[in-house]
Amino acid sequence: MSVLRIDRKIYEAIRAHGEETYPHECCGALLGRSTAEGWRIAAFVKAGNTRTDSAHNRYEIAPVELVKIEREARQQGLSIGGFYHSHPDHPAQWSPTDFAEAHWLGCSYVITAVAQGKAAVSNSFFLAGTTEEDKRFEDEPIEVHE
């Protein structure tokens, strides 16, 4: 089983990002290094939610922004280890849309429920599998470190 290890400051910052964008979904990338146990997150990047039709329950990171994030991560010796987004007034569980739009196999997807403007539960899901056809989300514990 994979474990997502994350610094408390980063964890709190991505949860705060959900509060800042409420009632719309926030989104961003998690940068880190892959270990035998899972991703160790060393940084994060806030991304703009380019969805204009349903920003309250959908998110999308522009491909050009994603390329820029990946390039900057490499310059720091890091990789994109996952993504995060918020679910305003909705549980911190992946939706069928979240699953359909998840394509980064081997990465973590963190979802924070933001209830009436306040970050509540945060959960992580590891996108396992080897192809788009056999991909699956697996529950992934989050270890928050000082």
Largest sheet features: 8 strands, mixed
Instruction: Tell me how many strands there are.
Output: 8
Q: Reading side by side through the largest sheet, how are the strands ordered?
A: 7-6-5-4-2-3-1-8
Proportion of beta-strand residues: 35-45%
Kindly report the average pLDDT value.
Answer: 95
- Flag low-confidence runs: none
- List the total number of helices: 3
Question: Overview of this structure, please?
Answer:
The chain has 146 residues and is α/β, with parallel strands linked by helices. It is 22% helix and 40% strand. It is built from three helices and eight strands. It has helices at 8-21, 63-75, 96-100, and strands spanning 4-7, 27-34, 39-47, 79-88, 108-115, 118-128, 136-140, 142-145. It has an eight-stranded mixed beta sheet with strand order 7-6-5-4-2-3-1-8. The chain is globular, with a radius of gyration of 14 Å. The mean pLDDT is 95.
Write the layout of secondary structure elements.
Blueprint: E1 4-7, H1 8-21, E2 27-34, E3 39-47, H2 63-75, E4 79-88, H3 96-100, E5 108-115, E6 118-128, E7 136-140, E8 142-145
Parallel strand pairs: 1-3, 1-8, 4-5
Antiparallel strand pairs: 2-3, 2-4, 5-6, 6-7
